[in-house]
Amino acid sequence: MTDFFKDIPEIVYEGTDSSNEFAFRHYDPDAQVMGKRLEDQLRFSVAYWHSFAWPGGDPFGGQTFDRPWFGDTMDHAKMKADVAFEMFRILGVPFFCFHDADVRPEGDSFAENTARLQEMTDYFAQKMETSKTKLLWGTANMFTHRRYMAGAATNPDPDVFAFAAATVKTCLDATHQLGGQNYVLWGGREGYETLLNTDLKKEREHAGRFLTMVVDYAKKIGFEGAILVEPKPQEPSKHQYDYDVGTVYSFLKDFGLENEVKMNIEQGHAILAGHSFEHELALAASLGILGSIDMNRNDYQSGWDTDQFPVSVPEVAVAYYEVLKAGGFTTGGTNFDAKIRRQSLDPEDLILAHVGGMDVCAAGLKAAAAMLEDGGLERMRDERYAGWDTSDLLGMDLAAIAEKVEREGINPEPRSGRQERLENWVNRFV
Amino acid sequence: MTDFFKDIPEIVYEGTDSSNEFAFRHYDPDAQVMGKRLEDQLRFSVAYWHSFAWPGGDPFGGQTFDRPWFGDTMDHAKMKADVAFEMFRILGVPFFCFHDADVRPEGDSFAENTARLQEMTDYFAQKMETSKTKLLWGTANMFTHRRYMAGAATNPDPDVFAFAAATVKTCLDATHQLGGQNYVLWGGREGYETLLNTDLKKEREHAGRFLTMVVDYAKKIGFEGAILVEPKPQEPSKHQYDYDVGTVYSFLKDFGLENEVKMNIEQGHAILAGHSFEHELALAASLGILGSIDMNRNDYQSGWDTDQFPVSVPEVAVAYYEVLKAGGFTTGGTNFDAKIRRQSLDPEDLILAHVGGMDVCAAGLKAAAAMLEDGGLERMRDERYAGWDTSDLLGMDLAAIAEKVEREGINPEPRSGRQERLENWVNRFV
Amino acid sequence: MTDFFKDIPEIVYEGTDSSNEFAFRHYDPDAQVMGKRLEDQLRFSVAYWHSFAWPGGDPFGGQTFDRPWFGDTMDHAKMKADVAFEMFRILGVPFFCFHDADVRPEGDSFAENTARLQEMTDYFAQKMETSKTKLLWGTANMFTHRRYMAGAATNPDPDVFAFAAATVKTCLDATHQLGGQNYVLWGGREGYETLLNTDLKKEREHAGRFLTMVVDYAKKIGFEGAILVEPKPQEPSKHQYDYDVGTVYSFLKDFGLENEVKMNIEQGHAILAGHSFEHELALAASLGILGSIDMNRNDYQSGWDTDQFPVSVPEVAVAYYEVLKAGGFTTGGTNFDAKIRRQSLDPEDLILAHVGGMDVCAAGLKAAAAMLEDGGLERMRDERYAGWDTSDLLGMDLAAIAEKVEREGINPEPRSGRQERLENWVNRFV
Amino acid sequence: MTDFFKDIPEIVYEGTDSSNEFAFRHYDPDAQVMGKRLEDQLRFSVAYWHSFAWPGGDPFGGQTFDRPWFGDTMDHAKMKADVAFEMFRILGVPFFCFHDADVRPEGDSFAENTARLQEMTDYFAQKMETSKTKLLWGTANMFTHRRYMAGAATNPDPDVFAFAAATVKTCLDATHQLGGQNYVLWGGREGYETLLNTDLKKEREHAGRFLTMVVDYAKKIGFEGAILVEPKPQEPSKHQYDYDVGTVYSFLKDFGLENEVKMNIEQGHAILAGHSFEHELALAASLGILGSIDMNRNDYQSGWDTDQFPVSVPEVAVAYYEVLKAGGFTTGGTNFDAKIRRQSLDPEDLILAHVGGMDVCAAGLKAAAAMLEDGGLERMRDERYAGWDTSDLLGMDLAAIAEKVEREGINPEPRSGRQERLENWVNRFV
Ligand SMILES: [Co+2]
Ligand SMILES: [Co+2]
Ligand SMILES: [Co+2]
Ligand SMILES: [Co+2]
Ligand SMILES: [Co+2]
Ligand SMILES: [Co+2]
Ligand SMILES: [Co+2]
Ligand SMILES: [Co+2]
């Protein structure tokens, strides 16, 4: 036991009357919601990187956090793991996620990186024997190191492609060893800074080949989790290939991967792409590629990825509505790819940020379930499209339809879209 | 002859030393550029709607323009056509474009609309016998009338779908009769105001069926032009299905239309979607679906579609670079889907806006051609990717690559992306 | 009595257990909140223009609403007033607001406009004798008519300045006659489309002179209400002089009006300017110029003014927190400068939109009051700044401070900003 | 002499026919423009921080640049200075700018920081004896160190205020010793992350007191340069008090500093605030507070500060038009607060970025001068406002104007704003 979180108790559910900051007001893991325990619906996950590896820097300032595990030795890495699992225990979260670079110091070579990752994987495996916290997903950090500055899979230099591919292999191996339920690819450097030096067509083909290799290798080693791509329109790159769900889907279709790969959708990235979170979720669900979510919001007044913990129950509720309507999570879950603000220096801040985020999600998901169980929204929607149930239009051609419109004098009157009424309806539940 | 443009002469090329406002300084239609006359490279087109049908309103104000042809009779419609063809003659443009609703008054029924469109099509056909100006594309306005407020192809009411389909048939017929080189679909109402009342999956399927019918009907009547979709992310709808090139491509792939349909890409719409114009062009070219362009810019400080005439030669040059690199226009062209500001009240403003836009495009395309003929950019790009020419990576699997990286100790050093150097290079030409 | 809202009953408070769409769930006008009736805290107001004068058009589509009072006769105007007061009665709102152009048909001259406005003012006065609904504010529409296309007070043509000034006189007279509690100026055309034709310095001076005249005239006629300016950064103009609260304050200071004029702050305009609503409120409060609010939101994904009814209790709560902390409304109130979506065709939609908005505001204000009464936030804030209570720094000069820092070895350690903790605290109340 | 730029020659003017990358095509320092040498009009300045202190990191990646002077000893600091002055010589720039933190390693105390800054100031003074390059401005970095994470002048902790004030004293002393022509304050941390923990009124007062102290101390030591504030709306903070020119002006007015302090305006910051660069320049000029410029652009598709070198002559030309119209620079100049992209690894990239930026500015300023000398724009503008020259309106009150409008039947017709015509006119020069 480290003493980082020394006086902080395990967080338990106390209900909305509680004014205890270190308790859940909405998140009762054992509550039944739509036929499952709430814990099994939400499937919360802590992100290793923001909470344990990020020093608090931003483009105009350096480290703000003082953490005893900051340093580049394996001992530091293990102390970090110890603290992480203590936080998992305090929060009672069922899952966590990590990149290779979060958990091991950077080595001087691929071989050294691999050895260190293996050592940490074994260390995690040992800790997980006595922890309830499982691995939601693993991933490879292919954006921090300078070798990736011009892309990993889409780098103009095939040696970088090779280094990246080799690295993904090791991360998939680690994820598999730890029983990870998904493997995620986020391509922060898979894009460009300027079109002037970029062969967009070639880079897209290399990305397609790369993803195909990942899918094949996962099958080869018997990894049964989902392979997920996380869309983001820009930042760090000026423009990224995995812009949004629609764009990634076009890529999957081109490379025949639409049945092999699903989406990990982040609220903040949806916002940066000009969409709402619920749009991206609904689109992915309609395309059959909804996998998992990163439940961290962007500040609406900031033009970059702020990765904040969720605070708005109404916003979260409409997101979970799409998730539950699509059947709920299978391998996926609710990952907090969220960081405390760089001014939130205290160990307590780290705990309270998660407590607050978990409570907001719990309240949101319960509201979403209530809306679905009521069924009012779905009834109103079905009614709006009811004309199609008996229409024969989709079997006709343009000329036949034109002939019919003229003959029957079809001249439709518009009907109210009832938006405000529907918004009021939603507000009964959130 | 109307006397609307009474004292305005035909615009001729006078060169950059001219200070005559009513002359071209860069656009010499007969100049040879990359093996074609400049007129045949640029293929300029005037948009009927903005210049002749738009009254100057905006969300906070009404009509500002006083035009003798404003009114809802067929005589008004013909006077409008007369003035339009006079402007085409003054500008010497080889093309124009129109929606049905631009050229005929709205009727009380589909049949009346059709008859009026037919009468105006005949009137155009007659005028085109003595005009050099051809039809670049026709299209159906399925966004202004209240029947379309909740969508045309994607309307919850099948009767609206039918009315829209019938209308497209008549517009395709008119386009075909007039020898139009393309037919365009822009879906300003094919989207939603709120997800709460929207069945995204169903609407997408209806849109797919609709587009398939259009493609089939074009074939059936022997229309040999291109079918083009014009992406736009939002406005008028909160969210539109044809968000951007990548999203439309995913749609085409899903409905097997990627070899049947191309893109009409507008600068302003690219900006609204968070892209640069050249990005959308380069992406479409790399996917083989670059068709035509709408060369009208958005104000970078405004969050809506301002549809302004182009003014920046450097911006236009990098766009034409992508067009020329992709082989130049075949059926497509440079359409000014641009409107003069609502304060630009005088007939002269209408002419000068086009003169300025044509000159900017001419200067831009010549700069683009010079860049391509120099070849410096392509050489620098090829050099950057040269490692792939001899690489065997794409044939290997992850495990083999990992083994190779470890065995060979691959540890790549990044190389400069040279962005500023390339930007300087471009500035030699623009 | 018209029969427009025929079957719709007066809306009464039924509490959160009610599932009656035509009832308030949170708005109990007689509930006591911070020493006042809730009705007297919120001071709801209906905006005449959006609900009764707007036909449903947008930049890409025309009229969607069919209203029996649409037309340009005085009879139409009176029918419109009748329907409006019926809606006020149904909703039980204590206030409304109007522009001259909302309530009377446009005349052919200033004299005719004045006469018509007078006739309608008398008509309103008569209706108000039997209505509980008072006038929150009046204003002049100086943006719709084409004469104002290049500005009203800031028009390059002094005749337009004169027409605008004369018009404001008549609107102030009408507001005064009706006992209006405020008079508002929003300058949608007081800005520019292009700097190229704009004399920014001259236009700013004319605006200053204009506002001074308004203040003087209000005093002269004994109008005791507040004069309010409503900031908005852009739209309809590319750039407007009343960009945001900070910018308007600089203008007031320059013309010595900072004690004469206050702000009417709209949520949507705050968002368009890159601020949060609560920022603009807090800034205005700190400058002593917080007057009234327009409680209508913008869609975060749309780059233009969508003027939607509020739906988010958490958002509304932090706004009312600033209002209540500043002492609550005096002459100001909560105006819904909000329009139903153009697809919301039915009379019921108009009522339900207001019911929903009022309920959201009621819930939000009650949450804000609870936060203030708890006092936790203020205590935590005071504690954060407590060091200043005993500091002598503000009386020293740079050299003395430098000497002190060196002598005392001052080397401050940062303290946690506790953002997530504070956000959690807020979530206990909303 | 270091050998960092070993084979790179001094850059000389060769004219537009040159294809030498290491030559100026537009910047001939000795060319006469509007009565001054071009060098004396443009007054170019290199920013020490981006070119010599920034390691190439971004929010998702670490150091990319390998520089022999990276390190935290005074020897490293002096090697950095040596390389910097070599670059100044190669480019022939007349000015540079620096923060304290750019030029000396961070010490453990205020005293150590001061001593190190003094040592480097002396080192600079010595180098400047044999260099043509002077100091345009100095400034204090009060945003990178963690002590400033919650603000410098606006920090809740008075000790941080004191540390900041003491630091500014030392930086003003250094600037004065080196003959700096301006002193700049940019408040990247003077703002907030969340209103919840912020006392906006108190922070604003402390900022006012701080700025007053700076002005007083500058006078006390006989510093005759200008005190400049650099506005920026956000980043790193969510919201910064020095949002834009209008907002800063309101602050200056409140604290009686409008005649003591001027603006340092950056293109990228103007864009982030929703303005054009030329707007901010024109506004500052009209308020008499235009001081100096940071000539680095933002990418229009990125929502954060990209600080790129200028590439667009048309954009730069309209900016210099405002500068020249206001009389040109006095103490101010053209500072490149610009950084090469993090992928631009080579010494050559650093030189070429500046060469390109200087050439773009030279071409732009020459175009601006030609426009001013032609006078066409000013004539058209004067004509547009000519009615005011003989108007007596500004001396009348509302009632008198209304009486006059009614009596004279004033009913103004709008006149064309001629935007496209003016844009075409500009395009003759750029
Ligand atoms: Co993110
Ligand atoms: Co994420
Ligand atoms: Co457009
Ligand atoms: Co278009
Ligand atoms: Co608004
Ligand atoms: Co408003
Ligand atoms: Co900047
Ligand atoms: Co700057």
UniProtKB/TrEMBL annotation, chains A, B, C, D:
Positions contributing to Mg(2+) 1 binding: 230, 266, 294, 337
GO terms classed as biological process: D-xylose metabolic process
Keyword Magnesium: yes
Molecular function in Gene Ontology: magnesium ion binding; xylose isomerase activity
A Gene Ontology cellular-component term: cytoplasm
Family listed: Belongs to the xylose isomerase family.
Assembly and oligomerization: Homotetramer.
Catalytic center residues: 99, 102
Reaction catalyzed: alpha-D-xylose = alpha-D-xylulofuranose
EC number: 5.3.1.5
Keywords of this entry: Carbohydrate metabolism, Cytoplasm, Isomerase, Magnesium, Metal-binding, Xylose metabolism
Phylogenetic classification of the source organism: Bacteria, Pseudomonadati, Pseudomonadota, Alphaproteobacteria, Rhodobacterales
InterPro entries in UniProt: Xyl_isomerase-like_sf (IPR036237), Xylose_isom_bac (IPR013452), Xylose_isomerase (IPR001998)
Cofactor annotation comment: Binds 2 magnesium ions per subunit.
Names of the cofactor(s): Mg(2+)
Highest taxon of the lineage: Bacteria
Subcellular location: Cytoplasm
Binding-site list for Mg(2+) 2: 266, 269, 305, 307
Protein name: Xylose isomerase
Primary gene name: xylA
The organism of origin for this protein: Wenxinia marina DSM 24838
Keyword Metal-binding tagged: yes
